[in-house]
Amino acid sequence: MTFADLIEKKKQNQQLTEVEIDWLIKSYLKEDIADYQMASMLMAIWFNGMTEKETAALTKAYVESGITYDISDIQGFKADKHSTGGVGDKTTLVFAPLVASYGIKVCKLSGRGLGQTGGTIDKLESFPGWKSEISDNEFKKVINKVGMSLMSQNEGLVPADKKIYALRDVTGTVDSIPLIAASIMSKKLVIENDSLILDVKMGNGAFMKTLTEAENLAQAMIGIARQHNRQIAIMITDMNKPLGKAIGNALEVKEAWDSLNGKGPEDFNHLVATAVAITLVQAQLFDDFDIAYQSVCQKMQTGEAAHIFEEFVKAQHGNFSVIKNYDKHFAVANSLEIKAMSSGYVNFTNANQLGLLSMRLGAGRATKKDKIDFAAGIYLNADSGSRVNKGDTIMTLFTNKGIDPNWIDMAYQTFEISQKQTKTPVILKIIK
Ligand code: URA
């Protein structure tokens, strides 16, 4: 069999075997298959899709292409959490300490942000000295001491996905459900956690623009988890508006700290408490989701898990005091208030644009080499769905750059004020 035969087979919408998929991924990594041939295969997959078995085989081939993390010597139930990426998404920073406060271990690999969505590692680097590049031994030491650790994904993590993602990016094949599912899940399966809660974002600030697309991606990832015997639950959540009120690195860390101390915004608290409660049920610490949810909310109110976040940051060499003295450490040269032009109910409708604006203010990278300004970003003073009067502050922009008048136009395009109140739920669907 030649690679051309396999392309022909996929083009005719026939199922590839596990052996064939394994061979094509290995051959591509060895450069026995050229980019133009793989591009043709990816386009055939884009048109014809993949079955659950094919997608699981592709994921397996991805996982086997690089290093895996052995955490079998860490005692207890080990939980993981992942988000497909959204604006203002600082969930991990609150999820992990809360889960750890129940004795569950959180062993997590995280990434950096590119474009309008931020990355957890970038947010945590708001703490001067905080290190994400730690050895496997240090990772385990921090988990055993604190109950949680986050380290950055190794450059060599899942090399087959890295190479194929770069090709997808330039061949119009990124938006294929099986290819996205295999790409995301391979990076989760390299570390042997017991459970996974996945937050699939849906809306203009996310990869998946419609509920149907998000559901299809969720089902593809559940299929992979099933084939790999991994416990999984998926939340599909709204990303037409940002999560919480803070967008930008230090601003989001501060909001996470507030949430751990009973002062977080309602939508964010609800999403985090749901993710934690699902994990507690997965770990069989609770039989009933509602009771687990109430227990988590109580811990958030009393601030019981906050010390774990502080200990974790310090254990990875971060100076935690900056967040307690926020105004001193994250003062900016320019802050700009965006005011309501009329009275009515405010609704944030364009998370994507808020993410782009935050990036322009200095909070994100347009290219991998760009430097991040931790203090830059946006704070949404008004709550989505709340009543505002003409002249009230809707949001504040924080930057150390000179003010660009285009930012003001951009900011006004991200919300509407109408006479009708609309309140949309943050969690659209839970699939277990
Ligand atoms: N995130 C990934 O890791 N891979 C994709 O293909 C899309 C989003």
TrEMBL record:
Residues 345-418 form the Pyrimidine nucleoside phosphorylase C-terminal domain. GO terms for molecular function: 1,4-alpha-oligoglucan phosphorylase activity; thymidine phosphorylase activity. InterPro entries: Glycosyl_Trfase_fam3, Glycosyl_Trfase_fam3_N_dom, Glycosyl_Trfase_fam3_N_dom_sf, Nuc_phospho_transferase, PYNP-like_C_sf, PYNP_C, Pyrmidine_PPas_bac/euk, Pyrmidine_PPase_CS. It comes from the Bacteria. It catalyses: thymidine + phosphate = 2-deoxy-alpha-D-ribose 1-phosphate + thymine. Keywords: Glycosyltransferase, Transferase. It comes from Mesoplasma syrphidae. Coiled coil: none annotated. One of its GO terms (biological process) is pyrimidine nucleoside metabolic process. This is Thymidine phosphorylase. Signal peptide: none annotated. Belongs to the thymidine/pyrimidine-nucleoside phosphorylase family. GO terms for cellular component: cytosol. Homodimer. The enzymes which catalyze the reversible phosphorolysis of pyrimidine nucleosides are involved in the degradation of these compounds and in their utilization as carbon and energy sources, or in the rescue of pyrimidine bases for nucleotide synthesis. The keyword Glycosyltransferase applies.
